Amino acid sequence: MPGIVGYIDFENKVGKDLLSLMMSAITHHDNYVMETYEKSPLWIGRSDLPLFNPESQPCLKDDLVVFFEGNITNKDELAKSDILSQENNIEIFIRLFHKYGVNLVNKVKGHFTAFVWDTKKESLVIINDRFGRHPLYYARTKNQLFFGSELKAFLPCKFIEKEINDQAIVDFMKFHFLIGDETFFKNIFLLPYASILEYQRDALSVNQYWDITFSAHRSNRSTTEYVNELHILTEQALKRAVDATNRKIGVMLSGGLDSRNIAVHVPKGQNEVHTFTFGQKEFKDVKAARETADRLGFKHHFIPVMSRFLADLSETTISLLDGMTWIYTAEDVYALSHVVKEKIDLLLEGSSGNLVFGSYPPGSLVRRALFILPLINRSKIAELYRSIPKNELAVKVCGDLCETLAPEELPLEELLSKDYYGKVERLLGKSLNEVVTKGCKSHRTPCELLDYVYFTVVVRRWNITAQLSFRWQVETVDPFLDYDLVDFMCKIPSELRLRRLLVRKELEMHHPEIRHIPITGNLASDIIRTVIQRSHITRILPQIKHEDNIRSTYLREEKEFIERILLDEKTLTRGIFNPETIRKVVRDHMSNKRDYTDTIGTLVSIELWFRLFID
Question: pTM for this structure?
């Protein structure tokens, strides 16, 4: 992805050629701004989209060398409190750094990663935003520190051992994404969200300056008062995200709640607003999106997704995103070409909204279905918000998360080879348990702890990663990851978070012009999808292509591609997968005997990663 790469080498063993190779690894388009600073012991460069930071970098001020990516979104607020003129991002950051040091994190809001090199002290400080929206990886050796916005940037470096991280393999097989700060390499880590990294000679420290806390506050405020405050904060979040007028704005619009919430709050006065929806014309999701765009007066673009997108774009997707997400994200990469064609300045994508505004009940299909029944609903909600002892809380939440995040089509014991499973069995659930244990320190009820894990794991390692599938060509922002909006949503009464009740009421009260348009992607839809998968209805009526199950159909239509990857001798003899199980999974899915959509997607993703990054 666009970003910043570099290294500190106090022993001058690396040389300057590596910087050029690292820069090339993260440069995917000819519209990137490319600039470097090369003065031993620091070699650093940026290859970035210019929308938010068109000015030349680095900025040299006194003894400081500063690179900055992202955007400070509370410039107006800072101008009032710190008497700042209308300066650009990097100038504002330097002025605040001089005044507050690393404590500027309590002043600045936005999405960013900043690099401050002190030439006199020969020390580096790296600071990222609360949510880690510009991922940065780092690796340390003796007297050397390497960093980069993509994992690929580390491949040319012979000083870093590229040892496979079994924990990451297990987590990806189980959850389809990684957990915590892990990468597929044991010695390369993702910088934690809300962190300050400091490096000087052989001393490295990483400290987290903030963490999210869900703590429902009881008050005498009415639901209407909460709705009105949400309306103000959502409009502010969209204004901050857009950050200027007369820009050509794109919105990834589905029939769901979150993208509609973005569309209705796009600030007035933009040059043009375009909406983009991909799928198949007969889908209710597609129809609802078009009706929403028409009602709001936006120029709408329908993108028909053809089955060949997996065969054509899976390898590109795994390469671009360093294997941190699975091949189905190729849908986004496919849609991106249509966004680029319209010359969009800024793309708004709000997949985090599902968890910012609340989440659906956890657990199995049966447990989730109970929340629909009025007589049972109240007692089930009370159970979710009842404080329980820490040891019981951790066990309960881990069980709920495994049911919700990783419903198994096949157990890992069957998918992995006997030898490899024996090696990694002790790692099963370890990463998730660590996150849950951390969350238990500040949360006492199952639902609040679940929200914490969803936000710090799913939003960070799934939603933010998937959004990068757009950002390699078009500047992309998730407006819902706004500091003030997230703070507000963490403290509203619990019942207003469940199933995103408050945001639904805000749309009803403040945007009646679209109230009649059905919202897709709800609890009932999830249950229908699960019923289809478990009842094997497509086996009886193979002509049915339910839109919640379309990936399963795509896999069958791309049988040749799937078999070419999974049944290849290289895959079957890699030593990780169970060859007999792989053959059975492919055979049963392609014959419509069973639905192994998630399993196949995961297996293909990992195998492609090995071929691109290891073989």
Answer: 0.93
